[in-house]
C-alpha cells in the first residue's frame, strides 16, 4: 500500500464577493496521515476542504499535490459528504458503481436494495464505500458524521478509525466535533472565526488504533481545543444572530 | 381575567388528555370515485326519462350511448378518433422532445439561460389558438397546421417545467458527481435528468390536457376528420346525441392519457 499523496496548501485566500472567508492559509497534509480541521461554525472549514480537492477555485494562492499514486487509483482526491450525496433513485450498489461507471471497469452486479430505505448510518457507510471503491490517494471528509445521531456517530467513528488506519491514505477530515478530532487526528488544525486563519496546529503522534475517549491525555487535548475555539464560537454565534436573515 | 390584587384565579385540569391530532390526511377510495360517477349518470338518466330535462338540448345518457354505439359500429368514430390521436401523438411528442431539450439547455448553460427564457416568456402568453391561421398559411390546411399548434402549445410549459426541475436538482449531488470525476454528459444523464424527472412527468399531465384542448380547437377551425371537426359538424346539424358522444370520447381520451401518465410515474418514480 502506497503512502499516498502530500497535499500542500500554499497561502490560500478565498473570497465570496467582498467577503473574505479564508485568509492566507498554509498547511501540509502529510502522506498517509490524518489532518483534522476544526473551528467555529462559519469559519470556512468546508470551503477549505472544497478548495483542497478542487471543487472550488481559490481567489488567491494554490493547492498542490505530490506523491506516487497506484495504478488502480481511479480518483486521487475523493470526497465523503456530510449529507451523504447518494442518488435516491439508485440502489446501494448503483450508488457505489456510479463512481466506477465512467472508467473502464467491468459493470457492477445488479443490486438489491434502494438507497432511500437505509438508515443514516447505513447511508454514510454507502458514501464511504463509494469513496473507497475508487481507491483514493487522498480522502476528503466533510463532516461525515454530523448528520447522524449520537449513537450511530459513535459506532461509525470506530469504523472510520479502523478504515483510515488500514487504508493508509492521506486524509483531511473536517468536523466541529472535538472528540472526533482527537480520536482521528494526527495533525489538528484549529481555524479562527471568519475570515478563517490558521490559529494553531496540534500534533498527536500516537497511532489511531487504541485511542479511546476515556484516555485522560486525549480528554485534556479536547478541553484545550475547546478553550481555543470557545470564544470564537460564541462570537460567531452572536454575529449570526445579528446578521439580517 | 388576569391578576387582580396579585391573585390569579386557578383553573383545574383533571382527566384524560384530549386527543388533538388526526385529520388532514384524506384517504382515497376508487370505489367511492366510481360510485359518484355512476350516481350522477343515473340521476341524469332519471331526470331525462321523467321529462325534467329537455332532451333536445341535453340528451339522456342512453341516447348518447346509442349514438356512440352506432358511431363505433359504422367505423365513423375510429375515422375521427384515429386522425385526432395521430395529430395529438405527433404534436405532443415533438413539443415535448424540443421542450425538454430547450429546458435542459436553459437550466444548465448560461449561454442559453437568459436568451432562452426571454423567448419563452415572450411567446408563452400568446393564446396558441390565435396562431392557427398563421400555421395554416405556413403549413397548409392539412395535418401540418394542427400538429404545429399542438406542438407549439406543449413546448413552452415543458421548457418552463424542465428548467425549473433542473434548477431544483440538489447542488450537492452535482458536486458529488464532479468530485468523482464524472464527465459533464454523465452528470446530465445520471444525476440531472433523473432528479428533474418528477418535474418533467408532472408537466406531462399539464401538457397532455393542453394538447387535447388545442387539438380540438384546431380541428374546429379547419378539418374534415377529427373529434373536434365531428363535434362542430354535429352542433351545426343540431345533432346533440352525436355532439355529446364526441364530448364523451374526449373525456375518455383525457382519462386514458392521465392513466398512462400515472403508470409512467409509477414506473419511473418508484424510488420516491
Report on this model:
- The complex is a heterodimer of chains A (245) and B (272).
- Chain A is an alpha/beta fold.
- Chain A has one domain: P-loop containing nucleotide triphosphate hydrolases (Rossmann fold), CATH 3.40.50.
- In chain A, 34% of the residues lie in helices and 24% in strands.
- Chain A contains six helices and nine strands.
- Chain A has a six-stranded mixed sheet, sandwiched between helices. A three-stranded antiparallel sheet of chain A has the order 2-1-4, covered by helices on one side.
- In chain A, strand 8 (187-191) and strand 9 form a beta hairpin.
- The termini of chain A are far apart.
- Chain B has ten helices and no strands.
- Chain B has helices at 30-49, 61-74, 76-108, 110-123, 132-139, 143-167, 171-179, 184-221, 227-236, 240-268.
- In chain B, helix 2 (61-74) crosses helix 10 and helix 5 packs across helix 6.
Question: How many individual helices of chain A?
Answer: 6
Instruction: Give the overall shape of chain A.
Output: globular
Please tell me how large the radius of gyration of chain B is: 27 Å
As for the number of domains of chain B, it is 1
Query: How much beta of chain A, percentage-wise?
Result: 15-25%
- Which strand order spans the largest sheet of chain A, edge to edge or round the barrel? 5-6-7-3-8-9
CATH architecture field of chain B: Orthogonal Bundle
**Secondary structure: helix percent of chain A:** 25-40%
**Coarse morphology of chain B:** flat
List the helices and strands and how they pair.
The complex is a heterodimer of chains A (245) and B (272).
Chain A: E1 6-16, E2 19-29, E3 34-38, H1 45-52, E4 60-66, E5 77-80, H2 92-101, H3 120-133, E6 138-142, H4 150-167, E7 170-174, H5 178-184, E8 187-191, E9 198-203, H6 216-242
Parallel strand pairs in A: 3-7, 3-8, 5-6, 6-7
Antiparallel strand pairs in A: 1-2, 1-4, 8-9
Chain B: H1 30-49, H2 61-74, H3 76-108, H4 110-123, H5 132-139, H6 143-167, H7 171-179, H8 184-221, H9 227-236, H10 240-268
